[in-house]
Every structure is written in C-alpha cells, then in structure tokens.
Design a protein that fits this description.
mainly beta, 2 helices
C-alpha cells in the first residue's frame, strides 16, 4: 500500500521499500522537497480573437508534476545498520530508470498524499572524502508524475443497485376480504408498506481540491448498463455501453487510463467501441470537489446487477 512505511512527518516513500527522511539512512536535507505543492505548468487552448483584443478562453491541461527530493546518505542514521555502499545500491535498485511508475508518498504537517511517478534524474555529488571515509553522499532525486494530481492514500468505494419499485401497501386475505396489513414500529402498529424501492443513485464525496477520475465497474447480469453523473460543477454526463453482461461478468471504466475492459484482470478485453451515441467522453468522467450524484441504469430489470464506483480524494 502506498505510504505504509511512513510513520512521521517529512518522510518520503517511493515504491514498496524505499523510505527517506527522519529515522532512515536517507536524510532529506535543508533543501527539502521541491515541486510537491507547486502548480505545474499547463497547455492552453486559448484562441486569439481576430478582431479584438485578447483571446477566446479555451481549456487548460496541466503538465506532468516534477518533484525533487534532496537526499543525503548517512549510514549512522540507518536503523538496519547498512553501510553507505549498501544504502547507495538499495537506492539505485529502487530508482531504476526503466521501471514503471510507482507510488510516491509524502507526509507534511500530518497529511500524507501520493502520486504515481518515475525517477527522472539521480545525480550524486562528487565522491569526496566523506563518501570514502564515512559513506556519506548527497544524491538529489528528481521524479516525474505524468498525472500531476496528488491523491489521498485511502481509496473510497460505494455500490449502487438498479432502480426497483417499492412494494406499496401490503394486504392480507382475512375472512374472505383483503385487509391492510400493519407492522409494529416503535411500539405502535403502522401501515405495512412492504420493502422500499431503490432509485439506483449514490452520492460520492471528493474531499480534495481537484477533480478526481473514478473507476466505474458494472456487475452482470444486465443489458446496456449506463452511469449518469450529476453535479453542480458540471453538466450531466452519460456513459452507456451496448453490451449484455452475464452473471459473473464485469465491465470496468477507468477514467484516468481511458479504458473500458470486459472482465478486467482476467480477459482484459477492450470494449470501448461499444459506447452508444448518446454518451459523452470517458475522460470527462470526473468527480469535482464536494458531492456528486451517480446514477446506475440498465435496460434489463435484473435486481442482482450492480455498479461500483471507486475513487480517491484529489489535490493539485
């Protein structure tokens, strides 16, 4: 799990095993951490006005986040008692340039956030007598996160069932006549309205400060599953797929990766091409800060189907 090794402020964890900062053999120097709270640069689609001053405002898309951690190897601080050379080789292994993105987690003032990043540069200082005699060496690290957003460590998940009707008033045949049923509630007999219905809606809360891309999973059996996103911060968005899911089938929509996969994790079959004409773009499926309502719909009426939304709080 991202950041699971962090136990105090000003620590940085990269991947599953590399922990830097207080209480480790990798001291974060006074230069500290750069780029963690910065607003990255962005690409703009503004268009100059042909017959007036200024431009027509367009969309803005943020560039990758660059994070620099100024680290110095100090064997005397290492709780495992490793030598300077052993610490350096462990650092080299954890920051291989050809590795896939891994979780980069930072705790500052009691708050731990994470992003997914790769090493961008690792430039050791000159091999001075401090390195040769005591194994101490400055090794500034630079990471690049293709998704500039930072996320909460905790991943949230909610499930919605399909819309179902309520049963309504219940009747019992008594002495040849239908009588309204009563059910005890709080010591008083009240009308028995039967099992409540379900509107198929859930409210999700992004407690961060930036739009968060969720993962939506439809569970069969269902036909033509769809999700409707309603929020005050954006127009309603529908994503619908012309597919029939059997019992045990799943269709997973990953807004960040831009993928639509049938039975993700097993067949990973691409089904993005089954999107219906009334649908928006998958990349537009974003949870703004605050509350959003998501609605699960389908053409079939099987009540055993469901939709799960998974997300993290997002920050810039």
């Amino acid at each position: 799990m991202a950041g699971e090794l962090i136990n105090q402020n000003n620590q940085v964890q990269f991947g599953p095993a590399l922990l830097m900062g207080p209480g480790t053999g990798y001291v974060v120097t006074r230069a500290g951490i750069e780029g963690w709270e910065d607003l990255p640069g962005f690409d703009s689609t503004d268009v100059p006005r042909p017959a007036s001053h200024g431009s027509w405002p367009g969309s803005r898309y943020l560039n990758p986040r660059i994070v620099t951690v100024d680290v110095s190897i100090h064997p005397d601080n290492d709780p495992a008692g490793r030598s300077g050379l052993a610490l350096k080789r462990a650092l080299d292994l954890a920051t291989r340039p050809d590795a896939a993105e891994a979780e980069l987690a930072v705790r500052v003032l009691g708050e731990t956030l994470m992003c997914r990043a790769r090493i961008n540069s690792r430039v050791p200082q000159a091999l001075s007598t401090q390195w040769m005699a005591m194994g101490e060496l400055g090794v500034p690290l630079q990471f690049i996160a293709t998704d500039p957003r930072r996320y909460s460590l905790d991943e949230h998940s909610l499930m919605a069932g399909p819309p179902t009707r309520s049963e309504g008033l219940q009747y019992t045949l008594l002495s040849g006549a239908d009588r309204i049923d009563y059910a005890p509630s709080g010591g008083v007999d009240r009308f028995d309205w039967g099992v409540d219905g379900n509107v198929g809606d859930i409210t999700v809360t992004n407690a961060g400060t930036e739009d968060s891309p969720p993962v939506i999973t439809f569970f069969g059996p269902c036909t033509t599953p769809s999700v409707l996103l309603q929020s005050d911060a954006a127009d309603d968005l529908v994503l619908e797929y012309d597919i029939t899911l059997a019992v045990g089938d799943t269709l997973t929509l990953d807004a960040r990766a831009g993928t639509v996969l049938l039975n993700a994790g097993s067949s990973d079959a691409d089904r993005a091409y089954l999107v219906t004409p009334r649908s928006g773009l998958l990349e537009e499926l974003l949870l703004p800060p605050g509350d959003s309502q998501l609605s699960f719909r389908q053409q079939s009426t099987d009540t055993s189907s469901s939709m799960t939304v998974t997300w993290r709080d997002a920050y810039m």
